[in-house]
Structures are given as structure tokens and as C-alpha cells.
Design brief:
The complex is a heterodimer of chains A (240) and B (293).
Chain A (H helix, E strand, L loop, with lengths): L1 E12 L2 E12 L3 E5 L6 H8 L7 E6 L2 E2 L5 H7 L1 E3 L12 H8 L8 H13 L15 H14 L4 E5 L7 H17 L3 E5 L3 H7 L2 E6 L2 E6 L1 H6 L1 H8 L5
Parallel strand pairs in A: 3-8, 3-9, 6-7, 7-8
Antiparallel strand pairs in A: 1-2, 1-4, 4-5, 9-10
Chain B lengths: L1 H31 L6 H17 L4 H24 L7 H23 L15 E2 L6 E2 H23 L1 H11 L1 H6 L4 H27 L7 H14 L4 H21 L9 H13 L14
Antiparallel strand pairs in B: 1-2
Helix pairs in contact in B: 1-5, 1-8, 1-9, 1-10, 2-3, 2-4, 2-8, 3-8, 5-6, 5-8, 6-8, 9-10, 9-11
Chain lengths: 240, 293
């Protein structure tokens, strides 16, 4: 079943076309990676789904809802949560409070919600930091807190913006495991923007390749890897 | 010695007023990043409402609660109607808007309620002075300090124990992230302004009956409150309370012991603001902000 569908999306900033007529779909339970060179429009797409950017035209539907007709704060209620390339936590708040805000749309902050937050922190091995303020914690830890905050909103769609950036090799392997495991445990679909190709190829069910705001390929990791246009976008055209 | 202690108590009483108004300033500064120069005039308007209600025969406590409730609504409306359209403008624009609001409210009360001094304000409690030893402690001091203590406890519970408090802290920390987590940021800002207005109303109705109600009643109080917030740190509620008490005591002791400054006691808060800005711009309890360039 299609969970998220992007149709003919056009985003411009002044005269610059950031996304040009992009269409693709994400099925329920899928891990779909968006890849492409810097500036290809990947984060721009995330920001359209989060309602931070206003597309010029096109449609984004999530589970039958027209996202482009909703204010930003309603998006979380529909079951869409995200993390950021440059972290966007609440530095002054404790780790637990950060996670609780993530579950804002879930109703009252009561003992049950606190227990859920504790469970999520435990699942991500963050429970020992529960009462610390987020400010000053190491980068890799902050990235996991962002994932914890996103999970607290009980999302159906989790959007991860470059989760592997800045992590060490072993941390990236752990992260790949984690994303797959979380998908199964929390019944998520995942939209992933990532430059780390080993991670993308190992965990994705589907890969969408963008270049200059347009889609140049879509398919399984194997198919896209073999696609000559993808190779060209990444490595340049062969000299003839 | 007993004279000193008497003045100390008076200072703490006044300080409690400055502290509550400073808390209102901090509340707005933390959530919207705005220095609300109109905070005093908002409290002034609230106090006129209080006077109006009692003049029409409402019991004092009911009049206080009604004035606070209307102030809450008024504060929320001010955020929505006056501040929201310019919230992303430069700090200079925001300062000018709140100064405009200051002037507008000050004129409105004179048009609406007359520019004469209202002296017939009822008191919420009887006048009384206790004399343990030779120290004089007035009922005003006890009521004001008690009010401040209750306000602090309620605000603490609101911010630490409730969902709306959590959401407001999140908005204060990063409004964009809060919005993406599903927090209706606009509603939170309206709530914050409403809360600040209600807090100012409470301070106004308790202090103004002691000094008489007229259009200029809140102006020097606002200056002292600004000094309190600057001293404590504009982003720190604890700082606002400590700063308010320090400023109140400094004022009372200066009045008593430094005769050269008689009649120009306002020099105390201005001196404090200047000193804080030169030595520790973030205030005693404020956090230094480091900006990435």
C-alpha cells in the first residue's frame, strides 16, 4: 500500500529550480533512500513534507491526506516525524523532556507517556542520560536523541536526514542495524537521505536518485547501482 | 539597626513587585525574544479595570480575578494582533512596536478612565503594621512577598509538571523544532503573553493602591523591573526574582541612607542596568549565548 506519494512537485527559490517535477511513492513498511549529489534537492523535499517550504506546485499525499493544505504543526499529528541534518533538539531541555515534546501530539503528559519515553530511551541506550540537559552531549548521542524524539510521536513515517553524517565506521554499522530494527519494532516506513552509500545499499528496499532537482533513477539498490545515468551523475560522463 | 531592618523589609516588599513584573518580562523575552516595554502599561490598564469593577460594586477579590482574566485575554490578543505580524522583523522594529504599545495604552487609559488620580481604590486586606522589637513590618510587605512566593510555585508547577509548560519551554528553546514536533507555536506564544499580562495585573492591583492610580503609576515601577530583569538575566526566571529583591532593597536603603539622591532614586535602577551591562551583560543567572558564524 502506498503511504506517501509525491506528484509533480516543483520547488523554486527565486529563479533557482530546487526540485523539478519530482514524483515517487513510498510503500508502507519500506525503507526508501533518497540519494544524489549535494544540492540535488533531497533536504528540500524533506522540508516540503514537513511544511517548512512551500512548493510552487504539485501534490504530496500521506495516507490519503493532502499535506500541502495543512499547517506545519499538524504534520506530526498525522504520523510523520523527522530528524535533521544539523541537529534541531531543544538544548535547554533535559533528554527526557526532549523526547516528551516529540510526543506532544499524543495527548496529556502523564505517567504512561513518561513510561513510554523511558522505554524509548532505554531502547536507544540513552536511559542513563535521561535527566541531563541535551546541551553539551556528544554528536552521535544527540543524533540518537533526535531519533528518540521522533519515535515518541509514534510516527508511521520516519524521515532521517543524513543520520550517518559525522559518525565513525562502527557507529554507521550500528545505525544501519538500528534503523532496520526500529522499522520492524515500531512498524515504520522510513524515508532516508544519506550520502553513506554502504549504508544506503545495505538497508534500503528502494532507492530514488535525484540530480539537479529531478529524478534520474528509481529502483532496488542493485538496479540503481547499475544504472548508467546514476554512475554519470556521481562520477561524470566517460570521456569519448 | 531596627531602622535598617525596617527599610530592608520595605525593600523586600517593593522588590516582590519588581520581581513579579520582571518575571512577566522574562516570560515574554524567553518565548518571543522581545523586550516588552509595554509590560507596565498593560498592568496599568489591568489596574484601571480593577478600579472600574470595584467602583461598580464588585467585591475586591472578584474584581482582582476578573481583571486578571481579562488581562490574560488582552495579553493573548496583543500577541496575536500586534506582535505576530512583525514577529520576524528586526529587534529594532519589535522595540518600537512595544514602545508604541506603551504610548497607546497610556493614552487609552486617560481617554477611557480620565486623567485624574483615583484614590478610592479599595484594599484587598486591612492596613496593619507589626512591630517585633523595633522593626516595622507592614501587611503590604507580607502580602506582596506571599503573592510572589505563590506565583513562583504556580509557575514552577506549570512549567515543570504540565504539558503546556513543557511545550512553552520547547518553544523557548527552539520554536522551529517545537513546531515540527507538533506544538502549535502560535497558541503557545499567545498563552505566554496572556500569562505575563495576568501576572502584571496581579502586581498592579496589589501595589498601585499604595501609591495612587494615575496614568504614570507604573512607569517608575517598570524601570525598576527592567533593572531587576537585567540584573538577574533576561532569560532566567530565578534571576528575575533575585534581581527584583536586590533592586527593591537597594532602592529602600538608598532612600534611607543616601540623602544626596533624595527625589532622584531612579538613578539606582539606571546605575544597576549600566553596571550589569558593563560587567556581566548576561546578568547574574543568565546564560551567555554563543552564536555560530
Amino acid at each position: 500500500m502506498v503511504l506517501l506519494s509525491v506528484e509533480d512537485l516543483l520547488v523554486t527559490f527565486g529563479g533557482v529550480v530546487a526540485i523539478a517535477d519530482l514524483s515517487f511513492t513510498l510503500d508502507e513498511g519500506q525503507i526508501c533512500a533518497l540519494i544524489g549529489p549535494n544540492g540535488a534537492g533531497k533536504t528540500t523535499l524533506f522540508n516540503c513534507v514537513s511544511r517548512l517550504y512551500e512548493p510552487k506546485s504539485g501534490r504530496i499525499t500521506f495516507d490519503g491526506h493532502e499535506l500541502l493544505r495543512m499547517p506545519a504543526y499538524r504534520i506530526a499529528r498525522l504520523g510523520i516525524a523527522r530528524t535533521f541534518q544539523n541537529l534541531a533538539l531543544f538544548p535547554a531541555l533535559s533528554v527526557t523532556d526532549n523526547v516528551l515534546v516529540g510526543g506532544y501530539a499524543q495527548g496529556k503528559v502523564n505517567a504512561k507517556r513518561r513510561a513510554e519515553a523511558r522505554d524509548i530511551l532505554e531502547r536507544l541506550s540513552l536511559d542513563h542520560l535521561a535527566d541531563r540537559p541535551a546541551v553539551g552531549l556528544p554528536y552521535g548521542t544527540l543524533k540518537r536523541i533526535e531519533i528518540a524524539r521522533a519515535l515518541a510521536g509514534r510516527p508511521r513515517l520516519l524521515m532521517l536526514d543524513e543520520p550517518a553524517a559525522g559518525l565513525t565506521h562502527s557507529e554507521v554499522d550500528e545505525l544501519s542495524e538500528l534503523v532496520r530494527a526500529l522499522r520492524d519494532e515500531f512498524h515504520l516506513s522510513v524515508l532516508l537521505v544519506e550520502h553513506h552509500m554502504a549504508m544506503v545499499m545495505s538497508i534500503s528496499d528502494k532507492v530514488v536518485v535525484l540530480d539537479f532537482g529531478g529524478k534520474i533513477a528509481e529502483g532496488t539498490p542493485e538496479e540503481t547501482r547499475a544504472n548508467p545515468r546514476v554512475v554519470e551523475a556521481y562520477l561524470g560522463a566517460p570521456a569519448s | 539597626m531596627s531602622l535598617f531592618l525596617t527599610q530592608l523589609m520595605n525593600g523586600i516588599g517593593n522588590g516582590a513587585v519588581y520581581a513579579s513584573l520582571a518575571l512577566a518580562l522574562v516570560l515574554i523575552f524567553r518565548t518571543t525574544g522581545i523586550l516588552n516595554f509595554a509590560q507596565g502599561e498593560m498592568a496599568l490598564y489591568s489596574t484601571y479595570l480593577f478600579w472600574y469593577f470595584t467602583d461598580r460594586g464588585l467585591p475586591v477579590v472578584v474584581a482582582i480575578l476578573a481583571a486578571m482574566a481579562l488581562s490574560f485575554i488582552g495579553g493573548a490578543l496583543v500577541e496575536r494582533v500586534v506582535i505576530r505580524p512583525v514577529e520576524h522583523s528586526s529587534p529594532l522594529v519589535l522595540v518600537i512596536v512595544t514602545i508604541g504599545l506603551f504610548l497607546a495604552l497610556n493614552s487609552i487609559v486617560q481617554v477611557q478612565f480620565g486623567s485624574d488620580i483615583k484614590t478610592n481604590l479599595p484594599r484587598a486586606y486591612p492596613k496593619h503594621t507589626w512591630r517585633p522589637g523595633n522593626v516595622q513590618i507592614s501587611a503590604d510587605t507580607l502580602v506582596l512577598v506571599g503573592m510572589l512566593a505563590v506565583v513562583c510555585v504556580l509557575l514552577y508547577l506549570l512549567f515543570q509538571r504540565t504539558k503546556i509548560g513543557l511545550a512553552m519551554r520547547a518553544v523557548a528553546s527552539s520554536s522551529e523544532s517545537a513546531r515540527l514536533s507538533g506544538v502549535p507555536v502560535g497558541q503557545m506564544l499567545m498563552f505566554g503573553w496572556g500569562l505575563a499580562a495576568a501576572l502584571g495585573a496581579l502586581a498592579g492591583v496589589l501595589v498601585i493602591p499604595q501609591i495612587g492610580l494615575q496614568a504614570s503609576s507604573m512607569q517608575s515601577i517598570l524601570v525598576f523591573s527592567f533593572a531587576a530583569a537585567a540584573l538577574g538575566g533576561f532569560d532566567s526566571p530565578v534571576g528575575a526574582v533575585v534581581g527584583g529583591l536586590i533592586v527593591g532593597v537597594a532602592e529602600a536603603l538608598t532612600t534611607q541612607y543616601v540623602h544626596a539622591l533624595n527625589g532622584i532614586v531612579l538613578i539606582v535602577p539606571f546605575g544597576l542596568i549600566l553596571g550589569v551591562l558593563m560587567v556581566r551583560p548576561q546578568g547574574l543567572f543568565g546564560r551567555r549565548t554563543v552564536e555560530r558564524v
